Structure formats: structure tokens, C-alpha cells
Amino acid sequence: MTSAPPLSPLTTSEALPLDGHLVHLPPAPPAGLATATEVVRDHLTRLGARFGPDAGPWHGGGSPHTAHDRYGTTGPETVIGLGGPHHARGTDLTLRGWPTGDPTPFDETTAQAATGLMALHGRANGGPRPLGTDYLSTLAGTVATQALLAAALSGLRSTPVRSARVSVAEAALFSLGPYVAAATAGDQPEEVPTPPYRRAARPPFRSADGVRFEVEALEVQPWRDFWKAAGAPAKDIANSWRAFAARSSRAASPLITTLAQCAARHRYADLQLLAERTVMGICALRTLADRRADSDVRYDDDPWELRELPRDEGDGPTPRPYAASRPHTGFPQLPLGGLRIVESTRHVQGPLATSVLQALGAHVVRIEQPGGDPARGAAPSAGGVSARFTALNAGKEVREIDIRTAAGRRAVAETVAEADVFLHTWAPGEAARLRLDEADLARARPGLIYAWASAWDRAPDGPRPPGTDPMVQAWSGVADTVRTPDGNPAPSLVTLLDILGGHLAAESVLAALLARESGAARGRLRVDSSLLGASRVLLRPLLRGLDESPGTPPTAPGLVAPTADGLIAVGADAGTTPAELAAAPSATWLKRFHAAGVPAREVVTDIASLPQDPALSAYFTHDGCARPTPPWSFS
Fold it and tell me: 12: buried, middle or exposed (CB in 10 Å: 19+, 13-18, 0-12)?
């Protein structure tokens, strides 16, 4: 059951949001920025933009030769251009690895080391460890796409954006904001268990017949019932629950080994029956080969669905033009200045999406249950409010509404009456049950863009496990690329897909706003995004070549090894052994590697130190905890 009837995708119609726009790409981007550049190219062309070496300049008065020179940059940066329709002046986006002013070589491994992702992922793996995928580069490509879509929208709203800047490092810091906020909370320090502890005690577990599987429980009762049926002692079940429930927020889950031992006594089929009986979520880890057979991968589905419903008589009058909400002139404005977003979301994916739109200038109204979102009280706190919650929701207007009541539904309608976008993360079917789907809200606000950020897309093929980040990683094949030190597949306890999924939700809303403003869509617009869609974006380079088996292996990560005085990450082609690195201090090696053009960086082992790093301190603000600044700049 879905929360809306089937709709006709806008992407199958003749009009697309970026029809007439030209994408100008470098002939050969720096190797460290190739993945991010490919994400930008893929997403912009899916939205209708054209690109190619013969696209020509778009600023006017130039020549193909000057355009080639402009985009043929070298070093750790590249320039991507998005030209307006009919060769109208467009926007230059400078995409860098490190922030402006840092010319040192860049790659994915060193970015993960320097921004704390390696440390976070390593909390459950015995120490800092790189992910087996180009995660930060993919994330930065999505952030860069957001910047270009926002700039195009701003231009249509008579506020041209000539240039924008994004760096992979700033995109990473912004996206890992909840973890940094928790690590720097002033009211109380975050207690994070660190190795050594028994890593085998954490999920995924292994059944008696060798199946590796994840489990999920959103409440304590299914957890208790499942493990009791599996034969675990009551004390161990109770003592493990708190660590399990907080595993994604802390990126650590030191459970008691008894649970893993009990799981290993049962065949997977029997564990499935226990899970069904106790309403416990369970999911066997799938490989990339398994994933490649799925229909959404075989047909290379878009990362989001942008759909249009024709307007009917019940939709009310034509919506007011954007001119009424355009920002005043005479002072600098962000691209979404004057726009209004209403959200009803929880956890990470939805709040991060609206925090992106807020950072781009929109005013966000957050609907919370009476008494406020329970996540406000989660430790650690800063200024009496959860630091993690603050990182995602600071500055949003809050309205407490009980959406389960008739009065609450009327209040929601009143709240969206002057809004441009409504975004929710409710379970499938919940919007229809509440009578708050896109048709219902269109009566209150004709022209409202209705957005749903889900776990499994609108129409999943068959039953799926609970839609949480670890379960989607397990099902989608992400866990097959993110492995433990002993080589076994295992979902990362960092909320990889929640973070990327939140950025994609924001990207889809920007595309819808652009479609409405450009006239590509004249009916009611709905956009759907999902964690599963985020997994497709992340794994797309590994899922290509569908007739090949077992597929392209993950890119070899660089070397992470101790030096005489610390820990260093070096690019894959360094030609240096761990034994050699141990013979000299990190500063010596960094100087040598950078002189040779080899990416190298000291590994951050404590993310609380990031705001004090002289190279990164400018990208944080401080208000009870450290919060990263937005990853874009516009001019």
C-alpha cells in the first residue's frame, strides 16, 4: 500500500526542469573529483540538461576554445557550468577537494581521514577505517548538484547567481554535523564505547547455516521477545538493548556476545519464523550480484521520482506566482530566500533535507507532536536540548500539532496554506489514512509541492524489512562494499544512507521548485525520494555492466597506517609500506607525499577535535556545541 495513487512521472513527459540548459564539464576532471563530477553530470542530465564537448560557452562572447580552457582545470579543483535556456548566462560551480586555500593533493581516502568519517566508521571496527566506497565524493556530487539547481532557480526568480563553490571536505563536515555536535556538546560529554570490545557481538549475526543477517527493533518489546525465543538470558537481553537502540546515533554497538551465540544455534529460516512471530525486523545481507538482478537497478531508476498530477476543479484557484515570495532587492540573498517549507519528519533523513533547504535560504516550519519531538531530550544535550537534534533543526519554526485529530489536520492545512513545499517521512499509507496526502493538501494550497522521503520507494517489489538505515544497507548491497577488518560484509553504523538520502530529498525538492518556476510542470507536483534510491546513487559505479559477473570490485582504498607519532592515510598509489611509514613522524611523510603529488592526510581519531583544527575551524559555529556551516558559497 502506498500513500498516493500511481502518477505519471514528469521524466516521461516532453518537459523537464532543465530543458534548454547546457552542462559544461571538464574534459578530464582530477582523479579525486571524478566520482563527484559524474554524479553532477548524471543528475543534471536526468533532469533534462544537455552536455558534451561541442556544447560551447554560455556566457556569450566566447569561443569553444576558451570554454575548453575554462573547464580544463588542473589540481584539486574543477569547474562545472550550468548555462540557462537559449544560451542565457548561467552559473560556474567550482568543485574542490579541500576548502579554498588548500592546494594539497586530494582523494577519497584522505577526505575520509581528515573529516572524521574514518574515525566514526571505525568506532565499531577497532579503530579508524576507510569505507569501501566513494561515499564522500558521491555526497559532494549531490551537494554540488543542489548548488546548481538552487542557482538556476534563483536566476528564474530574478536573482542571478554567477558563481558557486563547494568542497568535498565542507560537504562532509556539514553532513556529519549531528555526530560533531554530540561530540562537542557543552552540557555533558558524549559517552561512546571505544574498542577494544568484542566486535563479534554486534550485528550482523551469523546463523547456524552460515547466513549473515541484520536485525531491527524500533521498540524494546520485539527485541525482548525475539531474543527470549532464541534462548538468550533475560539479563543479557536487557543490558544490550540500550546499546543497540543507540547504535546509529553513536556509530557503536558493543552488545553482549551471548546474543550472537544464540543466533548461531538456529538456522536462518527458523530465525525468520521467530522474527515474524515477535514482530522483529530481520534481513539477510545481500551481495552486489543479488542487487544487480533487481528491477530498479536493471532499469537504472532515477534517484528520485518527480511526478505531476493534472489540476482539476477541486484544486481551487491558480496558485499565486513566485513574484509574491521573491526576496527584496538591495541586499544579498540566498537562492531560496522567501520560500516556505513545511515538514513533518523524524530522525535524520527528513530533518537533514529541510536543513539543506534552510541553509539555501528557505524558511522552514516544523510540525511536531504535542510536547515536542521526543528526540529533543536525547543525550548529550547543549543548552538543554539534544545536540544531535539541534544540529539538524536549529533555526526552524516549530508548531506543535496532533495530526491524528480532525483539529490537527485543519491546523496542518492552515500551516501549508502559504507554503511552497510540504515534506514528510511518514510510513507508507499513513498520509492517506490521515487524509493528508497531496490531493488533500492541494485543496488548502493549490500548487503546493508535496514531497515524501521514504525508505523503500513508492512501490517496492514484495515485502521489505523495516526501513531503517542498517536494514537498507543490508538489503541494498551497501553492506557488501562496507566490510569489517576480517573481510566480512557488514553495514556501517554511520547513518550513510540517511545522510545521502536526506541530501537527495533536498535535491528532488529543488528540482520540483525549478520545474514549477520554469513552467515544465503546470499541474500538482509530487516528489518521492528514498534510502533505497540513495543506495543506487552510491553503488551505481559498481552496479554497471549488468551482464558482467560478479561486477566491478570496489576501488582499492588508500593505505592507513601508523607513523612514528600518529596515524596517516595515503593515496592508493603511494608505493609505501606500513613498515616504512612507522620510521618517521607524520609531518615528515606529509611533506614528502605532497611534494610528490600524492594525497596524504593525518587521520582524525577524535571528531571533537575537528572544530579546533586550524584548517577547518572556519567552517564551524559554536552555540553550546559545534555546528558546521553550509557547504556552499554563492556570488
Answer: exposed
Q: For residues 190 and 380, is the Cβ–Cβ distance under 8 A? A: yes
Residue 334, SS3? coil
Asked whether 23 and 472 are in contact (CB, 8 A), the reply is no
Tell me which amino acid residue 287 is. T
Beta carbons of 446 and 311 less than 8 angstroms apart: yes
Burial of 426 (0-12, 13-18, 19+ CB in 10 A): buried
Question: Cell numbers at residue 527, please?
Answer: 516528489
Closest CA to 342 of 237, 451, 262, 239: 451
Grid cell 562532509 is found at 172
* Cα 28 versus chain centre, distance: 26
| Sheet strands (E) in 242-355 | 281-284, 304-309, 340-344
String of b and e for 360-385 (b: at least 16 CB within 10 Å)? bbbbbbbbbeeeebebbebbbbbeeb
Distance CA 128, CA 120 (A): 7
Amino acid identity for residue 537 in this structure? V
Q: Give the mean pLDDT of the chain.
A: 85
- 289: its cell numbers: 550480484
- Contact between 429 and 1 under an 8 Å Cβ cutoff? The reply is yes
Largest pairwise CA distance in the chain = 77
257: which DSSP letter?
H
Q: List b or e across 161-172, with b for residues whose CB sees 16 or more CB atoms inside 10 angstroms.
A: beebbbbbbbbb
Kindly tell me the burial class for residue 328, based on how many C-beta atoms sit within 10 Å of its own C-beta (0-12, 13-18, 19 or more): exposed
CA atoms within 13 A on the CB side of 360: 31
Distance CA 598, CA 191 (A): 36
User: Distance (Å, rounded) from C-alpha 277 to C-alpha 200?
Assistant: 26
CA distance 588 to 604: 17
Burial of residue 469 (number of CB atoms within 10 Å: 0-12, 13-18, 19+): buried
Element (H, E) at 367: strand 363-368
Cis peptide before 470 (omega within 30 of 0): no
Q: Which of 391, 357, 393 is nearest to 373 (CA)?
A: 393
Higher-pLDDT residue of 384, 507: 507
Mean pLDDT of 33-48: 93
Which grid cell sits at 102? Answer: 588548500
Report the alpha-carbon distance of residue 344 to residue 425 in Å, rounded.
Answer: 7
- Please provide the DSSP assignment of 496-524 as one string: HHHHHHHHHHHHHHHHHHHHHHHTS--SE
Cell of 432: 492517506
The DSSP bridge partners found for residue 368 are 400
> In DSSP terms, which residues pair with 173 in a beta bridge?
none
Rounded Cα–Cα distance for residues 627 and 335 (Å):
22
According to DSSP, the residues that pair with 82 across neighbouring strands are: 23, 91
Residue pair 20/86 in contact by the 8 Å Cβ criterion: yes
By mean pLDDT, which of 8-22, 329-343, 390-404, 480-494 is the weakest?
8-22
DSSP 395: T
For residue 374, give the DSSP letter.
G
pLDDT digits (tens, 9 = 90+) for 467-523: 999 999 999 999 999 887 778 899 999 999 999 999 999 999 999 999 998 888 878
Q: What are phi and psi of 606, to 5 degrees?
A: -135, 110
Q: Is the pLDDT of residue 552 over 70?
A: no
How far CA 156 is from CA of 47, 89, 271, 336, in Å, comes to 16, 11, 56, 11
Supply 158's cell numbers. 530574478
Nearest to 142 by CA among 219, 43, 217, 254: 43
